């Protein structure tokens, strides 16, 4: 029994180490993806597109940016649909938004899972460490008090490790989730502008 407890305690620390490496890898991958996806496109680009849609009567304008970003891809896709005279523009743009959403939220469930469960994994390690400490107390008696206290101190490190992993992971997950939400809201705004442009063009 004691051997399994010791093995479990060691496994918990190995799991926390693996979780921290995995979380760091996902964080860096998502950070690079968001930077690449947004490029240098900012609010001025969105304002340019909206102004052009509101003022133009025909699809005879092009965006100045050549950066491959989420916004520019979406705009170019919408312009192609308009220039080809495709029906169901609203549905096509909604499908494009869903496609971008899948890419934006990719691997975020990993961060969410680690952030929610790392404290419990650390707590499990602490429980196993306390079991080991009390077993040592029962075996060694009062003469082993120093050994028992060291065991409890080590056990508490598991909880600290779990919190050390969970807190930055939750912050990273919230950051990327918020960024993805803002991007998707901007795409919804662009979709509405393209839909209004098509309606005005049809009426005209």
Automatic annotation (TrEMBL):
Entry keywords, A to Z: Cell membrane, Membrane, Protein transport, Transmembrane, Transmembrane helix, Transport
Main location: membrane
Membrane topology: Multi-pass membrane protein
Bilayer-crossing regions: 12-33, 114-135, 155-176
Subcellular location: Cell membrane; Membrane
Residue stretches making up the MotA/TolQ/ExbB proton channel domain: 69-188
UniProt superkingdom: Bacteria
Cell membrane recorded as keyword: yes
UniProt record similarity statement: Belongs to the exbB/tolQ family.
Protein name per its UniProtKB record: TolQ transporter
Source species of the chain: Leptospira kobayashii
Organism taxonomic ancestry: Bacteria, Pseudomonadati, Spirochaetota, Spirochaetia, Leptospirales
């Amino acid at each position: 029994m004691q051997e399994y407890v010791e093995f479990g305690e060691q496994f918990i620390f190995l799991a926390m180490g693996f979780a921290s490496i995995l979380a760091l890898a996902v964080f860096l991958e998502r950070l690079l993806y968001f930077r690449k996806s947004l490029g240098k496109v900012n609010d001025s680009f969105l304002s340019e597109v909206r102004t052009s849609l509101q003022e133009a009567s025909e699809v005879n304008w092009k965006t100045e940016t050549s950066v491959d970003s989420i916004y520019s891809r979406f705009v170019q896709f919408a312009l192609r649909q308009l220039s080809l005279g495709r029906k169901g523009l609203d549905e096509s743009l909604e499908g494009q938004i869903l496609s971008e959403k899948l890419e934006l939220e990719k691997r975020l469930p990993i961060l969410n899972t680690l952030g929610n469960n790392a404290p419990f994994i650390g707590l499990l390690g602490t429980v196993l460490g306390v079991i080991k400490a009390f077993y040592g107390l029962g075996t060694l008696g009062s003469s082993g008090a120093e050994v028992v206290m060291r065991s409890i101190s080590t056990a508490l490190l598991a909880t600290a490790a779990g919190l050390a992993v969970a807190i930055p992971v939750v912050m990273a997950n919230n950051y990327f989730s918020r960024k993805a939400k803002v991007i998707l809201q901007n795409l919804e705004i662009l979709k509405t502008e393209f839909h209004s442009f098509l309606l005005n063009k049809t009426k005209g």
